[in-house]
Amino acid sequence: MRPLFIAPVALVAICSCNEGPRSVVRGEPRHESTSIDRGDAKMSRIELNLGAGELRVSGGSKKLLEADFDFEDPSQRPRVESHSTGFRGDVKISEPSGISLHNGKYRWEVRLTDDVPVDFNAHLGAGEATIDLSSVSKRSVSVNMGVGQLSLDLRGKVESDYSVDINGGVGEARIRLPADAAVTANASGGIGEISVDGLEKRGGRWINPRNDHGPRIHLNVHGGIGQIHIDAN
Fold first, then answer.
1. pTM, two decimal places
2. Judging by beta carbons within 10 Å of its beta carbon (0-12, 13-18, 19+), is residue 92 exposed, middle or buried?
3. From CA 154, how far away is CA 140, in angstroms rounded?
4. How would you class 148 by CB atoms within 10 Å of its CB: exposed for 0-12, middle for 13-18, buried for 19 or more?
5. pLDDT tens digits for 62-97?
6. Dihedrals φ, ψ of 161, to 5°?
7. Backbone angle region of 127, left / alpha / beta, with phi > 0 → left and psi within -120 to 50 → alpha
8. Is residue 162 a contact partner of residue 142, using CB atoms and an 8 Å limit?
9. How far is the CA of 65 from the CAs of 31, 83, 155, in angstroms?
10. Residue 149, CA atoms < 13 Å, CB-side half-sphere
């Protein structure tokens, strides 16, 4: 299918502000795609807002961003906004407001370029998210969980310091870190468990005993109700 390009000026609200949430009626499966060119961007900011469904994120794109969407009702079509300042490209993808229930498949697959440093932000509601940023050049990473499961892969070469902020919701999160990178991790739990492998606790925080120099990952985890596992092996 021909890629779908959505210009910011063409974006409209899916539901009136006076309307409450409504259920989605299952219809014919739909598949749509979009892509955002890199242009002259030297850095990027990617924001993903998914209320309910399945999210897959990876690197390897030749463009700033490519995405495929699967859904079963026209009102579920994601809103894609992009803006470029010349040196920075900003992309925001959001699930339409007013949707309370998905009957059927709702999936986003997003691919990022590897070599444009990114500030990555994901706001997740209910569902499953697999976010693999191991090949992507990272400036910062922020994930706010809702209800469900999160797999976040941050392995790969650390070229410069960057921060990672995880706010746990209800469910399970697994965060994978490179075994040879300098790491400073702070973790605090809610009602649940935070387990750490491959790091050593010193003075209320965790570090990588194999490397305490060079470019560093600054990880901050705030647990919710469920289990969070940090793996640096």
1. 0.86
2. middle
3. 11
4. buried
5. 999 999 999 988 889 999 999 998 899 999 999 987
6. -55, 140
7. left
8. no
9. 17, 12, 20
10. 6
